[in-house]
Amino acid sequence: xxxxxxxxxxxxxxxxxxxxxxxxxxxxxxxxxxxxxxxxxxxxxxxxxxxxxxxxxxxxxxxxxxxxxxxxxxxxxxxxxxxxxxxxxxxxxxxxxxxxxxxxxxxxxxxxxxxxxxxxxxxxxxxxxxxxxxxxxxxxxxxxxxxxxxxxxxxxxxxxxxxxxxxxxxxxxxxxxxxxxxxxxxxxxxxxxxxxxxxxxxxxxxxxxxxxxxxxxxxxxxxxxxxxxxxxxxxxxxxxxxxxxxxxxxxxxxxxxxxxxxxxxxxxxxxxxxxxxxxxxxxxxxxxxxxxxxxxxxxxxxxxxxxxxxxxxxxxxxxxxxxxxxxxxxxxxxxxxxxxxxxxxxxxxxxxxxxxxxxxxxxxxxxxxxxxxxxxxx
Length: 378
Ligand SMILES: Cc1ncc(COP(=O)(O)O)c(C=O)c1O
Hints:
Blueprint: E1 12-16, H1 17-34, E2 37-41, H2 51-57, E3 60-63, H3 66-75, E4 79-83, H4 89-98, E5 101-104, H5 107-118, E6 125-129, E7 168-170, H6 179-197, E8 202-204, H7 218-232, E9 235-238, H8 242-245, E10 249-259, E11 265-268, H9 272-275, H10 278-281, E12 299-304, E13 313-319, E14 328-332, E15 352-357, E16 361-366, H11 370-374
Parallel strand pairs: 1-15, 2-3, 2-9, 3-4, 4-5, 5-6, 6-7, 7-8, 8-9, 11-12
Antiparallel strand pairs: 1-10, 10-11, 10-14, 12-13, 15-16
Helix pairs in contact: 3-4, 6-7
The structure holds pyridoxal-5'-phosphate (PLP).
Protein backbone atom coordinates (compact mmCIF):
# COMPACT_ATOMS: atom_id res chain seq x y z
CA UNK A 1 0.00 0.00 0.00
CA UNK A 2 1.41 3.35 -1.03
CA UNK A 3 -0.64 5.48 1.38
CA UNK A 4 -0.61 6.28 5.09
CA UNK A 5 -3.65 4.81 6.83
CA UNK A 6 -3.19 7.23 9.75
CA UNK A 7 -4.07 10.18 7.53
CA UNK A 8 -7.50 8.74 6.59
CA UNK A 9 -10.90 8.90 8.27
CA UNK A 10 -11.69 5.80 10.32
CA UNK A 11 -13.33 3.56 9.47
CA UNK A 12 -13.02 3.86 5.70
CA UNK A 13 -13.15 1.71 2.61
CA UNK A 14 -10.24 2.40 0.26
CA UNK A 15 -10.46 1.31 -3.34
CA UNK A 16 -7.21 1.22 -5.24
CA UNK A 17 -7.62 2.52 -8.78
CA UNK A 18 -4.54 0.74 -10.14
CA UNK A 19 -5.81 -2.63 -8.87
CA UNK A 20 -9.24 -1.94 -10.31
CA UNK A 21 -7.69 -1.14 -13.70
CA UNK A 22 -5.77 -4.41 -13.54
CA UNK A 23 -9.06 -6.32 -13.11
CA UNK A 24 -10.75 -4.30 -15.84
CA UNK A 25 -7.91 -5.04 -18.28
CA UNK A 26 -8.30 -8.76 -17.62
CA UNK A 27 -12.05 -8.54 -18.24
CA UNK A 28 -11.47 -6.48 -21.40
CA UNK A 29 -9.17 -9.21 -22.70
CA UNK A 30 -12.14 -11.62 -22.56
CA UNK A 31 -14.24 -9.11 -24.51
CA UNK A 32 -11.47 -8.73 -27.08
CA UNK A 33 -10.99 -12.47 -27.52
CA UNK A 34 -14.66 -13.37 -27.87
CA UNK A 35 -16.69 -10.30 -28.80
CA UNK A 36 -18.86 -10.95 -25.74
CA UNK A 37 -20.24 -8.13 -23.62
CA UNK A 38 -19.41 -7.78 -19.94
CA UNK A 39 -21.61 -5.82 -17.55
CA UNK A 40 -20.90 -4.67 -14.00
CA UNK A 41 -23.35 -6.32 -11.58
CA UNK A 42 -24.06 -3.33 -9.38
CA UNK A 43 -25.40 -5.45 -6.55
CA UNK A 44 -21.78 -6.36 -5.83
CA UNK A 45 -20.10 -3.02 -6.34
CA UNK A 46 -21.84 0.34 -6.80
CA UNK A 47 -19.04 2.83 -6.19
CA UNK A 48 -20.36 5.11 -8.89
CA UNK A 49 -17.47 7.56 -8.73
CA UNK A 50 -15.48 4.92 -10.64
CA UNK A 51 -18.28 4.10 -13.15
CA UNK A 52 -16.73 6.37 -15.82
CA UNK A 53 -13.50 4.36 -15.46
CA UNK A 54 -15.32 1.01 -15.54
CA UNK A 55 -17.28 2.19 -18.59
CA UNK A 56 -14.02 2.59 -20.51
CA UNK A 57 -13.52 -1.17 -20.34
CA UNK A 58 -16.95 -2.77 -19.91
CA UNK A 59 -20.23 -2.53 -21.82
CA UNK A 60 -22.60 -1.35 -19.12
CA UNK A 61 -24.32 -2.46 -15.95
CA UNK A 62 -26.80 -5.00 -14.74
CA UNK A 63 -29.31 -3.98 -12.12
CA UNK A 64 -31.57 -5.66 -9.59
CA UNK A 65 -34.03 -2.81 -9.18
CA UNK A 66 -35.16 0.54 -10.52
CA UNK A 67 -32.66 2.41 -8.40
CA UNK A 68 -29.68 0.37 -9.49
CA UNK A 69 -30.84 0.73 -13.09
CA UNK A 70 -31.12 4.51 -12.68
CA UNK A 71 -27.73 4.73 -11.05
CA UNK A 72 -26.13 2.78 -13.89
CA UNK A 73 -27.85 4.90 -16.51
CA UNK A 74 -26.96 8.20 -14.86
CA UNK A 75 -23.42 7.42 -13.81
CA UNK A 76 -22.13 5.13 -16.58
CA UNK A 77 -24.56 5.83 -19.41
CA UNK A 78 -23.93 2.60 -21.32
CA UNK A 79 -26.11 -0.53 -21.60
CA UNK A 80 -28.49 -1.05 -18.68
CA UNK A 81 -29.92 -4.51 -18.01
CA UNK A 82 -32.47 -5.12 -15.28
CA UNK A 83 -33.57 -8.38 -13.72
CA UNK A 84 -35.65 -8.89 -10.62
CA UNK A 85 -37.39 -11.97 -9.20
CA UNK A 86 -40.56 -9.88 -9.64
CA UNK A 87 -41.17 -6.36 -10.94
CA UNK A 88 -43.85 -4.17 -9.35
CA UNK A 89 -46.37 -2.08 -11.31
CA UNK A 90 -45.16 0.92 -9.33
CA UNK A 91 -41.61 0.75 -10.66
CA UNK A 92 -42.08 -0.75 -14.08
CA UNK A 93 -42.62 2.38 -16.21
CA UNK A 94 -39.44 3.96 -14.89
CA UNK A 95 -37.51 0.70 -15.27
CA UNK A 96 -38.57 0.65 -18.90
CA UNK A 97 -37.34 4.20 -19.35
CA UNK A 98 -33.79 3.47 -18.18
CA UNK A 99 -33.28 -0.16 -19.30
CA UNK A 100 -32.06 -1.68 -22.56
CA UNK A 101 -32.75 -5.28 -21.50
CA UNK A 102 -35.40 -6.44 -19.06
CA UNK A 103 -35.17 -10.03 -17.87
CA UNK A 104 -38.27 -11.61 -16.37
CA UNK A 105 -38.20 -14.37 -13.80
CA UNK A 106 -41.45 -15.99 -14.93
CA UNK A 107 -43.81 -16.20 -17.86
CA UNK A 108 -46.54 -14.61 -15.68
CA UNK A 109 -44.43 -11.48 -15.41
CA UNK A 110 -43.64 -11.58 -19.12
CA UNK A 111 -47.35 -11.70 -19.96
CA UNK A 112 -48.14 -8.98 -17.43
CA UNK A 113 -45.63 -6.47 -18.78
CA UNK A 114 -44.89 -7.42 -22.40
CA UNK A 115 -47.44 -5.03 -23.96
CA UNK A 116 -45.82 -2.15 -22.14
CA UNK A 117 -42.37 -3.19 -23.31
CA UNK A 118 -43.40 -3.85 -26.89
CA UNK A 119 -45.45 -0.64 -27.10
CA UNK A 120 -42.63 1.50 -25.75
CA UNK A 121 -41.16 3.98 -28.28
CA UNK A 122 -37.62 2.70 -27.75
CA UNK A 123 -36.66 -0.97 -28.36
CA UNK A 124 -36.17 -2.74 -25.04
CA UNK A 125 -35.07 -6.35 -25.33
CA UNK A 126 -36.90 -9.02 -23.35
CA UNK A 127 -35.27 -11.97 -21.65
CA UNK A 128 -36.38 -14.87 -19.48
CA UNK A 129 -34.24 -16.17 -16.65
CA UNK A 130 -34.00 -19.94 -16.83
CA UNK A 131 -33.14 -22.31 -14.02
CA UNK A 132 -31.13 -25.17 -15.52
CA UNK A 133 -31.37 -27.06 -12.21
CA UNK A 134 -27.61 -27.50 -12.25
CA UNK A 135 -25.20 -25.73 -9.92
CA UNK A 136 -22.12 -26.51 -7.90
CA UNK A 137 -22.62 -23.92 -5.15
CA UNK A 138 -22.16 -25.42 -1.70
CA UNK A 139 -23.60 -22.62 0.48
CA UNK A 140 -27.37 -22.96 0.27
CA UNK A 141 -28.22 -19.25 0.52
CA UNK A 142 -26.04 -18.58 -2.53
CA UNK A 143 -27.37 -21.47 -4.61
CA UNK A 144 -29.93 -20.29 -7.18
CA UNK A 145 -30.65 -23.91 -8.13
CA UNK A 146 -31.35 -25.19 -4.61
CA UNK A 147 -34.47 -27.29 -4.22
CA UNK A 148 -37.49 -25.00 -4.18
CA UNK A 149 -35.56 -22.03 -5.59
CA UNK A 150 -37.73 -19.12 -6.75
CA UNK A 151 -35.13 -18.01 -9.29
CA UNK A 152 -35.67 -18.77 -12.96
CA UNK A 153 -37.97 -20.92 -15.09
CA UNK A 154 -37.31 -24.66 -15.01
CA UNK A 155 -37.46 -26.67 -18.21
CA UNK A 156 -40.75 -28.27 -17.11
CA UNK A 157 -42.35 -24.83 -16.80
CA UNK A 158 -40.92 -23.30 -19.97
CA UNK A 159 -43.62 -22.00 -22.34
CA UNK A 160 -42.37 -22.41 -25.91
CA UNK A 161 -45.50 -20.70 -27.29
CA UNK A 162 -44.15 -17.43 -25.82
CA UNK A 163 -40.84 -17.65 -27.71
CA UNK A 164 -41.77 -14.97 -30.24
CA UNK A 165 -41.78 -12.39 -27.44
CA UNK A 166 -38.31 -13.25 -26.14
CA UNK A 167 -34.97 -11.91 -27.41
CA UNK A 168 -32.69 -13.88 -25.09
CA UNK A 169 -32.25 -16.21 -22.14
CA UNK A 170 -30.42 -15.55 -18.89
CA UNK A 171 -29.02 -17.97 -16.34
CA UNK A 172 -27.20 -17.23 -13.09
CA UNK A 173 -26.12 -20.34 -11.21
CA UNK A 174 -22.57 -19.71 -10.01
CA UNK A 175 -20.81 -18.12 -7.06
CA UNK A 176 -17.07 -17.37 -6.89
CA UNK A 177 -16.36 -20.20 -9.35
CA UNK A 178 -13.83 -21.08 -11.99
CA UNK A 179 -14.57 -21.71 -15.67
CA UNK A 180 -14.68 -25.51 -15.33
CA UNK A 181 -17.97 -25.03 -13.48
CA UNK A 182 -19.17 -22.77 -16.28
CA UNK A 183 -18.19 -25.36 -18.87
CA UNK A 184 -20.28 -28.02 -17.14
CA UNK A 185 -23.17 -25.58 -16.64
CA UNK A 186 -23.16 -24.52 -20.29
CA UNK A 187 -23.37 -28.18 -21.30
CA UNK A 188 -26.53 -28.61 -19.20
CA UNK A 189 -28.04 -25.34 -20.49
CA UNK A 190 -27.31 -26.47 -24.04
CA UNK A 191 -28.83 -29.94 -23.54
CA UNK A 192 -31.97 -28.61 -21.85
CA UNK A 193 -32.61 -25.24 -23.47
CA UNK A 194 -30.61 -25.42 -26.72
CA UNK A 195 -33.78 -26.00 -28.73
CA UNK A 196 -35.14 -22.67 -27.49
CA UNK A 197 -31.93 -20.76 -28.20
CA UNK A 198 -32.27 -21.18 -31.94
CA UNK A 199 -33.45 -17.84 -33.25
CA UNK A 200 -32.62 -15.92 -30.06
CA UNK A 201 -30.35 -12.87 -30.11
CA UNK A 202 -28.43 -13.35 -26.91
CA UNK A 203 -27.63 -15.55 -23.94
CA UNK A 204 -26.60 -14.06 -20.60
CA UNK A 205 -24.25 -16.26 -18.53
CA UNK A 206 -25.03 -14.31 -15.30
CA UNK A 207 -22.41 -13.68 -12.61
CA UNK A 208 -20.34 -15.75 -10.21
CA UNK A 209 -17.38 -15.95 -12.60
CA UNK A 210 -14.23 -15.33 -10.55
CA UNK A 211 -12.39 -14.15 -13.65
CA UNK A 212 -9.90 -11.87 -11.91
CA UNK A 213 -8.74 -14.49 -9.41
CA UNK A 214 -5.16 -15.61 -9.91
CA UNK A 215 -5.96 -19.28 -10.69
CA UNK A 216 -8.92 -18.53 -12.99
CA UNK A 217 -8.74 -20.36 -16.31
CA UNK A 218 -9.61 -17.64 -18.83
CA UNK A 219 -8.99 -19.89 -21.85
CA UNK A 220 -11.75 -22.24 -20.73
CA UNK A 221 -14.11 -19.28 -20.26
CA UNK A 222 -13.27 -18.10 -23.76
CA UNK A 223 -14.01 -21.57 -25.16
CA UNK A 224 -17.43 -21.71 -23.45
CA UNK A 225 -18.35 -18.28 -24.78
CA UNK A 226 -17.24 -19.08 -28.31
CA UNK A 227 -18.99 -22.46 -28.22
CA UNK A 228 -22.43 -20.99 -27.46
CA UNK A 229 -21.81 -17.89 -29.57
CA UNK A 230 -21.08 -19.93 -32.68
CA UNK A 231 -23.46 -22.83 -32.16
CA UNK A 232 -26.53 -20.57 -31.92
CA UNK A 233 -25.22 -17.34 -33.45
CA UNK A 234 -25.72 -15.50 -30.16
CA UNK A 235 -24.36 -12.43 -28.47
CA UNK A 236 -23.00 -13.61 -25.11
CA UNK A 237 -23.24 -11.47 -21.99
CA UNK A 238 -21.46 -11.96 -18.66
CA UNK A 239 -22.47 -9.93 -15.61
CA UNK A 240 -19.93 -10.43 -12.84
CA UNK A 241 -19.99 -8.23 -9.76
CA UNK A 242 -17.32 -9.60 -7.48
CA UNK A 243 -14.75 -10.18 -10.26
CA UNK A 244 -14.66 -6.46 -11.04
CA UNK A 245 -13.71 -5.36 -7.55
CA UNK A 246 -11.98 -8.53 -6.33
CA UNK A 247 -8.91 -7.69 -4.23
CA UNK A 248 -9.10 -3.99 -5.09
CA UNK A 249 -10.11 -2.57 -1.72
CA UNK A 250 -9.41 -2.37 1.99
CA UNK A 251 -11.33 -1.43 5.10
CA UNK A 252 -9.25 0.56 7.56
CA UNK A 253 -10.42 0.47 11.18
CA UNK A 254 -9.17 1.65 14.55
CA UNK A 255 -8.94 -0.28 17.82
CA UNK A 256 -11.11 1.50 20.42
CA UNK A 257 -10.53 -0.67 23.47
CA UNK A 258 -9.28 -4.02 24.72
CA UNK A 259 -11.66 -5.99 26.93
CA UNK A 260 -10.51 -8.85 29.17
CA UNK A 261 -12.35 -12.11 28.52
CA UNK A 262 -11.50 -15.80 28.06
CA UNK A 263 -10.13 -14.61 24.75
CA UNK A 264 -9.05 -10.95 24.95
CA UNK A 265 -11.40 -8.86 22.82
CA UNK A 266 -10.43 -5.88 20.72
CA UNK A 267 -13.34 -3.56 20.06
CA UNK A 268 -13.05 -1.76 16.74
CA UNK A 269 -14.78 1.22 15.20
CA UNK A 270 -15.99 -1.09 12.44
CA UNK A 271 -18.68 -3.72 12.72
CA UNK A 272 -19.26 -7.06 11.03
CA UNK A 273 -23.01 -6.50 11.28
CA UNK A 274 -22.90 -2.98 9.81
CA UNK A 275 -19.91 -2.83 7.47
CA UNK A 276 -19.13 -6.38 6.35
CA UNK A 277 -22.38 -8.35 6.79
CA UNK A 278 -21.14 -11.19 4.56
CA UNK A 279 -18.70 -12.09 7.35
CA UNK A 280 -21.79 -13.15 9.31
CA UNK A 281 -24.02 -14.25 6.43
CA UNK A 282 -21.67 -16.22 4.22
CA UNK A 283 -19.89 -16.71 6.69
CA UNK A 284 -16.28 -15.91 5.87
CA UNK A 285 -13.09 -14.67 7.48
CA UNK A 286 -11.57 -11.51 6.02
CA UNK A 287 -7.81 -11.12 5.76
CA UNK A 288 -5.96 -8.50 7.87
CA UNK A 289 -2.55 -7.18 6.87
CA UNK A 290 0.16 -8.43 9.28
CA UNK A 291 -2.25 -10.62 11.27
CA UNK A 292 -2.36 -14.42 11.52
CA UNK A 293 -4.69 -17.20 12.55
CA UNK A 294 -5.37 -17.58 16.30
CA UNK A 295 -2.15 -18.40 18.20
CA UNK A 296 -0.04 -18.27 15.06
CA UNK A 297 1.53 -15.04 16.36
CA UNK A 298 2.13 -14.12 20.01
CA UNK A 299 -1.06 -12.17 20.82
CA UNK A 300 -4.52 -13.44 19.92
CA UNK A 301 -7.65 -11.29 20.05
CA UNK A 302 -11.30 -11.69 19.18
CA UNK A 303 -12.14 -8.69 17.01
CA UNK A 304 -15.61 -7.27 17.50
CA UNK A 305 -17.68 -4.28 16.53
CA UNK A 306 -19.04 -1.43 18.64
CA UNK A 307 -22.68 -2.60 18.41
CA UNK A 308 -24.69 -4.34 21.14
CA UNK A 309 -25.02 -7.53 19.08
CA UNK A 310 -23.14 -10.27 20.94
CA UNK A 311 -22.38 -11.95 17.64
CA UNK A 312 -20.91 -8.83 16.04
CA UNK A 313 -17.60 -10.68 15.81
CA UNK A 314 -15.25 -10.42 12.85
CA UNK A 315 -13.10 -13.34 14.00
CA UNK A 316 -10.06 -14.36 16.05
CA UNK A 317 -6.69 -13.09 14.84
CA UNK A 318 -3.16 -13.02 16.20
CA UNK A 319 -0.57 -10.24 16.09
CA UNK A 320 3.17 -9.85 16.77
CA UNK A 321 2.57 -7.07 19.31
CA UNK A 322 -0.25 -6.54 21.82
CA UNK A 323 -3.08 -4.43 20.38
CA UNK A 324 -3.88 -1.10 22.02
CA UNK A 325 -6.41 1.67 21.54
CA UNK A 326 -5.53 3.76 18.51
CA UNK A 327 -3.94 0.93 16.50
CA UNK A 328 -5.03 0.69 12.88
CA UNK A 329 -6.13 -2.59 11.29
CA UNK A 330 -6.39 -3.02 7.55
CA UNK A 331 -8.87 -5.62 6.29
CA UNK A 332 -8.26 -6.85 2.76
CA UNK A 333 -10.59 -7.52 -0.18
CA UNK A 334 -13.30 -5.22 1.16
CA UNK A 335 -14.53 -3.48 -1.99
CA UNK A 336 -17.30 -5.85 -3.11
CA UNK A 337 -20.50 -6.71 -1.23
CA UNK A 338 -19.58 -4.28 1.56
CA UNK A 339 -20.51 -0.68 0.63
CA UNK A 340 -23.63 -2.01 -1.12
CA UNK A 341 -24.79 -3.90 1.97
CA UNK A 342 -23.79 -1.70 4.87
CA UNK A 343 -26.21 -0.19 7.38
CA UNK A 344 -26.32 2.08 10.44
CA UNK A 345 -27.61 -0.45 13.02
CA UNK A 346 -27.09 0.97 16.54
CA UNK A 347 -26.43 4.38 14.98
CA UNK A 348 -22.98 3.24 13.91
CA UNK A 349 -21.66 5.55 11.20
CA UNK A 350 -20.93 4.31 7.69
CA UNK A 351 -17.26 4.07 6.72
CA UNK A 352 -15.97 6.90 4.55
CA UNK A 353 -15.23 5.98 0.93
CA UNK A 354 -11.73 6.69 -0.31
CA UNK A 355 -10.14 6.21 -3.73
CA UNK A 356 -6.40 5.73 -4.09
CA UNK A 357 -6.02 7.30 -7.51
CA UNK A 358 -3.21 6.59 -9.94
CA UNK A 359 -2.45 10.25 -10.67
CA UNK A 360 -3.21 12.13 -7.47
CA UNK A 361 -2.93 9.59 -4.66
CA UNK A 362 -5.54 9.22 -1.97
CA UNK A 363 -8.84 11.13 -2.27
CA UNK A 364 -11.70 11.00 0.21
CA UNK A 365 -14.71 10.55 -2.09
CA UNK A 366 -17.41 10.61 0.56
CA UNK A 367 -17.90 10.87 4.30
CA UNK A 368 -21.14 10.12 6.12
CA UNK A 369 -22.71 11.64 9.19
CA UNK A 370 -25.72 11.94 11.44
CA UNK A 371 -28.00 13.12 8.60
CA UNK A 372 -27.46 9.86 6.68
CA UNK A 373 -28.55 7.89 9.74
CA UNK A 374 -31.48 10.19 10.50
CA UNK A 375 -32.79 10.32 6.94
CA UNK A 376 -33.54 6.60 6.94
CA UNK A 377 -35.73 6.96 10.01
CA UNK A 378 -38.75 9.03 10.91
C1 LIG B 1 -28.63 -12.35 -11.50
C2 LIG B 1 -27.27 -12.07 -10.99
N1 LIG B 1 -26.34 -11.60 -11.84
C3 LIG B 1 -25.09 -11.31 -11.42
C4 LIG B 1 -24.71 -11.49 -10.10
C5 LIG B 1 -23.30 -11.14 -9.69
O1 LIG B 1 -22.66 -12.21 -9.12
P1 LIG B 1 -21.11 -12.11 -8.65
O2 LIG B 1 -20.96 -10.86 -7.89
O3 LIG B 1 -20.96 -13.32 -7.80
O4 LIG B 1 -20.30 -12.15 -9.89
C6 LIG B 1 -25.65 -11.98 -9.18
C7 LIG B 1 -25.29 -12.18 -7.77
O5 LIG B 1 -26.05 -12.59 -6.95
C8 LIG B 1 -26.96 -12.27 -9.64
O6 LIG B 1 -27.91 -12.72 -8.79
